[in-house]
Amino acid sequence: MSAKTEHYDVVRKPIITEKTTMASENGAVVFEVAIDANKPQIKEAVEGLFGVKVKAVNTTITKGKVKRFRGQLGKRKDVKKAYVTLEEGNTIDVTTGL
Amino acid sequence: MQVTETQNEGLKRGYSITITAAELDAKVNEKLAEAAPGIEMKGFRKGKVPMALLKKQYGPRVLGEAMQESVDGAMSKHFEESGDRPAMQPDVKMTNEAWKEGDDVEVAMTYEALPAIPDVDYSKIKLEKLVVKAETAAIDEALASLAENAQNFVDRKKTSKAKDGDQVVIDFLGKVDGEAFEGGAAEDFPLVLGSGQFIPGFEEQLVGVKAGDEKAVEVTFPEEYGNAGLAGKAAVFDVTVKAVKEPKAAEIDDELAKKFGAEDLEALKAQITERLEAEYAGASRSVMKRGLLDALDKAVSFELPPSLVEAEAGQIAHTLWHEENPDVQGHDHDTIEPTDEHKKLAERRVRLGLLLAEVGQKAEVEVSDAEMTQAVMNQARQYPGQERQFFEFVQQNPQMRQQIQAPLFEDKVVDHMFEQVKTTEKEISKDDLQKAVEALEDDV
What ipTM was reported for this prediction? Predict the structure, then answer.
């Protein structure tokens, strides 16, 4: 499957933290994805962009914090993260970015 | 790491060093592991960044360092094993220019080894030590000049006029265009006429005044006066003369001695004698040193590294050229070709330099920290008000430290040699010593 422009709208960027490095030991890669993207879309996008076989997608929404700016209440944006487990034998080099 | 010899003729040496990719990689990993606990990266706690990421991020930078280090290490190891000492910084070049990560590194190194320096047979060298006793005449002369410097000013009679060399005590107020300016007024100012302390013309006009006189001194500030607002302007100084004093040489007695910190005249004389003799000793030492160096120059001969001689000859030619053409300030002129004479001089210098260094090393002559600090202090005194900066400059500048250390080291080595060679004392007069010193200066 080849990469299409809309794939880039779904998968925003890889997330590189201690936690995700731990997940990568179990063959999972973590991405920040569009808030309205669903699991099938994410699967298709990752397979298309990186040319890998995806086994499963788990998603989670991290709610943005409520912050006060110059006395006014505001809210940081919510972020959807996708834990993409790859089929065995597939890898993604996350550090190179999208 | 592999070292193979490619050239070995005379003092010239050429080697090629190969460092395998695996060795280099191990070095990089080692370096990264060492740095890892201190690295902070977003998304990770300090020191928890995984190795793979570190390598990706910092690898190329560390690689250069590692390469440098392993080449340096290989070189120093080679020098240690072969016992060679390079005369100058070895010329190091990478031979495989199209190098990329994962390849073996090949480096070609060429240098000139320092020659083996033969031991010096000190028993063959005989030196004359010139001893000069301080003469009474010289002491008296020194005393007289001290007395002159310590002149007092004594009030003249009320009616007598001030002469050149007199001191006048004055109040003055300077005006430009009828307005007083800053720094142009003082009271009870002691001014020695003819001392050139004030702007030209001021002191001359005060010659002939008496105590109690008032005088308007008209002068023009010189064009290059320090204060731009005043330069080139005409000014009038209202001067009131309070006293006129004449200089009077201090008498050579205990009073004078006390002024210079000695207990009485005898003590002062002793001090002067000591100082004079120290001066003579210094002069005779440099004559003796010259003798020693001449003797050494004849006594030993060995092959000299041509690059050192060439550099030294170039340096000599350059300095001499600058002395002959003092109007050229910069160093951006054409290179000066050293003549045969320069080369001969350079050979002597290089040979003696190498010999002294070798002897010093064998005899374990070292310059102690205290001596070093002392020398730095002496130099710092040449820059009054900036001693601190000078100190810091020296501290941060190993080359400068080297420069200060070199003469110290040389002196100590020469001292060491003086102990080894036979010296005979010979008493001569002060004039003879002076002649010897002058002859020495002519030679160089």
Answer: 0.73
